[in-house]
Amino acid sequence: MEITLTHYLVLSSVLFAIGLIGVMRRKNLLMLFFATEILLNATNVAFAAISHYMGDLSGQMFAFFIIAIAASEVAIGLGLLIVWYKRTGKIDLDQMNSMRG
Amino acid sequence: MFEAIAFYLFAALTIVMFTITVMTSQALYAITAMAAGMIFISAFFFILGADFLGAIQIIVYTGAVMALYAFGMMFFDTTRNVVEKRTNPQIVFVLGVLAAVMVVAIFVAPIVSNNIQALYPIDAAIGNTQAIGMVLFTKYLVPFELAAVMLLVAMIGGIVLAGKKMDKSLTLMAEEDIGSMDDSIEPQAGGH
After folding, report:
1. Which of A31, A73, A87, A92 should one mutate to test binding to chain B, selecting the residue with the greatest count of B CBs within 10 A?
2. Most Cβ neighbours (<10 Å): which of A89, B68, B121, B186?
3. Domains and CATH numbers, chain B
4. What is this model's ipTM?
5. How far, in Å, CA of A89 to CA of A83, rounded?
């Protein structure tokens, strides 16, 4: 029994689906950040698997840059979230309607 | 054989952990399950021969990102259960269809790419970390520098956003006070 590229792509899409469920059902912004981290990790698995089975290092490079982007996203996002929580006391997505959008 | 056992074991563990992260109503359970899931994800990188990527995954995600989330959660009320509301079913339907189309595209991609060849082929003679370094500092040097600048901007932004006026509770202040705080705080800070 050999593990092929399809196994990894199935696993990646399952993880991506889990993250997508989280993005759709969460109203708490902190939990929404967790779900986006799962989405980024699912793509990283797919990139690393394709890199291995195609014998190309480009996939791993893209995974590195995705990790760097995820780290920046967390720093900025949590900073904004802390400021918002200090002002309103809530981090619910539905109550962020100060722009009446 | 061992590769298959490891793959299925870590696949099951990762799926369970991320499902807990998405489904639980306790923020602390969610962050713990996600930290475990990140470590299990790194196991796939080690199986796939991407050793450096696996080490980076552990250091950056379970080291830096999780510590940042734990730090952020100190500000929030984490003992309270997270309240979820049902979303609009039409939006869920549209997003579900889009996700299904995307999954089909992912599965079709290897079939289409049968005739492509590697731009930077993996050389078995040199180690993974050495090969990564050689590609990263030659072909991907400009994106690497851009990522460094991006991380610097993110760091400064995080410090400015989270670190300013940490001793004051903005919740208990009126909107006008927050607006005029920038003017009033500066003379006080110079006093002591």
Report:
1. A31
2. B68
3. 1-81 (1.20.120.1200), 140-183 (no CATH)
4. 0.90
5. 10
